[in-house]
Specification:
542 residues; alpha/beta; ABC transporter transmembrane region fold; Rossmann fold; 4-stranded mixed sheet; 12% strand; elongated
Amino acid sequence: MYKNIKQLLNDLVEVSKYTKTTNKKKSIILLGIIGNLLVLSDILIILSFASFFDQKIEYDNFLISYFLENTYFLPFFILFRFFLIYFERISITKLQFRIEENLRIHLLTEVFNRGNVSVADAYYYVNTLSAQVGSFYSTLSSLFGSFIQILIFSTYLLFSNFQIIIIFLIGSLLLFIPTFYLTKLGRKYAHIAYESGNSISADLEKVLDNLFLIKIVNQIKNEIIKFHKNIDIYFSSRLSDIKFGTINTLLPNFFTLFGLSILLVFFNFGKFITFDFIGILIRLFQSLGLFNKNVHQVSTFHVYLEKLYFIEKNKEDINSNNFSYESNIDENIALEFNNVNFKYLGSEKLMFKNINLKIPRNKHTIITGVNGSGKSTLIGLMSGVFYPLSGNVNVYSKKFGYVSATPMILNSTLKENLLYGNEDEVSDDKIINYLTKFELFEKDSIYNLDQKISNKTLSMGQMQKVSFMRALLRDVDILVLDESTSNLDAKSKQFIYKILEKEDLTIINSTHNPNDLLNVDNHIKIKIVDDEGNREITLEEY
């Protein structure tokens, strides 16, 4: 138990550095002060109500005596308590949102900077992980508040009726055993939910990226069955976690009322217990129930905190220096791999081992391989999107262009779409020249660069043409194509490749259909050579 608490505190200290939320400690301290005020107001309100039923209640404390003598304060204290609760809950929510917002930005930045994060992991980190860590901090604040309430209520009751409260405190110590066991079970199911949630993100990415293929080859049923299996594991694990958490929350209240009823009915304890004692005792165990709930949730959310800590402590895997621009590279070479090793963040197995490649300059090189062989990963390494774990990739130019199978179209003007990411001054005449060359609209059309376009107003072929023009308008030296014409008909493919032939650039083209291409010079083949996923990469003339 001590070891787990120590680990939690260590992770908390480390992860707090990454949330980059200003005044976080002050916010938590303020919430502690509010918790104190809430407890005091609860005690005064309970005592005030008790005084209406028992006029003999007397207290040595000046503040309590004054309040009981001036009962007209009661409505104002209830109003004050209402605003305290409102302010506490809003403050906790604001803290959670600030942490979540900063963490989303931080993790998205990390995805770009690291160069070893898969798309599925990126989705999961930025969306799910950020939300869960934000919830962890809000729960931690509530835990802090409920702990303060327990201390103050217990102290008050100890001074009020020492013998009776000792009985209940012994009982509450016995609650530690089921609380510990239930928290441990909840954490187990939280971990299962985390793993299955990660699988759901990967499955969803795969299905949405291959929607057309899955439907055309009639694999809808199989994909839904696989997806349903992970969804079922996720929600059943979440439900089990919630079940144990709910029992943890309800036990203290049940124990209090059940124990109190036994004492009153069978042992005639009514003559020893006052109305105010019962009221504050119930509030004590309500706070204990809330404390148990928060302990359970903190333990559950700690799974996500550990994952965030894992991401941050593995920053040594960021090797951006292993990708470099070399002006003195052989004039016939566009880029070269020297003993490159690569693996994704969180993976124990290398995806690529000791790759040595030289891509000829101003040539058309295609990359082929089965699904999952690593074609997209390889072009990511070639273009500096991913960084080698060891070895290095040297390229002769920084001027890369990229076209994928799913074009990015902004809901904006034609000109803004074509110049996305372009930092150079590009004349309207040059833009219109490319529009005419690519025949974006009907032949001999008059192009209005301020015309609004979106992925709803353009066909797939038109969107792909926008992507190709966007790349070429940047005057790129190396054009990376990732299944860029997979959704186009044969005529459109030939049309685009004929235009590319006239451009003075190096083309690196990942494709499933090499026979559809014109004037290919070289062929990189990626083969998975064994059941362990080891790959063999060869380059040959086409």
